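Supplementary notes for students who missed Thursday's class. We covered one full example, reproduced here. Read the sequence, then the structure, then the short commentary at the end.
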Amino acid sequence: MSDHQLRTRMPGAPAPAAAPAPRGPGPRTAAALRAAAPALAVYAAVRALGLLALWAAAHASGKDPLARLTGRWDSVWYQRIAENGYGYTATLPDGTLHPDLAFFPLLPALERGISEVTPLTLGGAGLLVAWTAGLLAAWGIFAVGAELYGRRTGVVLAALWGVYPTAFVQSMAYTETLFTALAAWALYAVLKGRWLAAGALCVLAGLTRPSAAALIAALAITAAVTLVREIQAGNGLGPVLRRNARMIAGVALAPLGWLAYVMFVAVREGNPFAYFDVQAQWGNSIDGGRALAGFIAGLPLPAALGLCAALGLLGWLVVLCVRQRQPLPLLVYGIAIVVISLIGAGYFGSRPRLMMPAFPLLLPPAAALVRLRSTGRPAAVIAALACASAAYGAWTLLGAGPP
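Structure (token representation):
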């Protein structure tokens, strides 16, 4: 299949004829795993470097590195839910209330289940989920990159995701790796026309993080555009709906996880808008970017200019994704993750972490690095970024503020 075919084929359309795949799920999975092995090895290596940097820095400062991964910030909230269920509310010194209903249930459910059938503590179970999901996410990211632009690009894409500035969170008992794994494989399923699988993965993503709204939007908009194009091509509505029944079913399935949790909070609190009230109590209400603008305005001029430059670079990456002609579901998902991360009123320091699942933004630099492969620069660039990411991660994890 040519690059042109890969870029222009609509998700859900039949793929061009290819060599017969091995029969049975076992051989196919084994072959896919062998193809992804370089990406998984590079990803594991850069994350191991981050853990090594944390261990060395923590040892030098007399701190416990494991506690930094399992016993701080959001990790504690997830473990408390896993142990006791929902119902805890923290009261801050200024009287602000932080209910645990702000945290979605899939990670604590997995922590509880694993801790009950293994000797692992809840923190250890959280790390097992996060690290396993990190590898699955790297595999899914590789699969998307390889499907669109070839295996080399897939490997570099997975590596770049592993050296993202806040990639140290991928080694913590957080939801970032779990959500990204579900999102990457859902998007891959859409690219392959497997809409029911995409919808099912989206259900799980909707039980993991509120940003699943971006994934739901990606599926819905892609399906809507597909239906409109087919109808405009002169096909009758009935035949179009019948031919795309699986796509429609997958889109209908996609939001059920997110909606189920929102309804759970509503019933529990006796208020149909309770979930949004909970988010507002945490300061996570949608304000259209006013909090971000106010934060920038309050910074010293050099810091404000630096942050504006970073936001400009982010905008340029979005432009490059459009110019790269990424498939519609990837464009919608990546842009929606960025928008959701920037228009909320929450703690500014968490926003780079919230944007980490937007791996399609890394496709343009990944493709650019692959074009330089004859010079040996991709490996050097990734190694330098891995060292910088490891150092920054150790410094942040040993500091006081949350990521």
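Commentary. The radius of gyration is 21 Å. The beta strands are 89-91, 97-99. If anything here is unclear, bring it to office hours.
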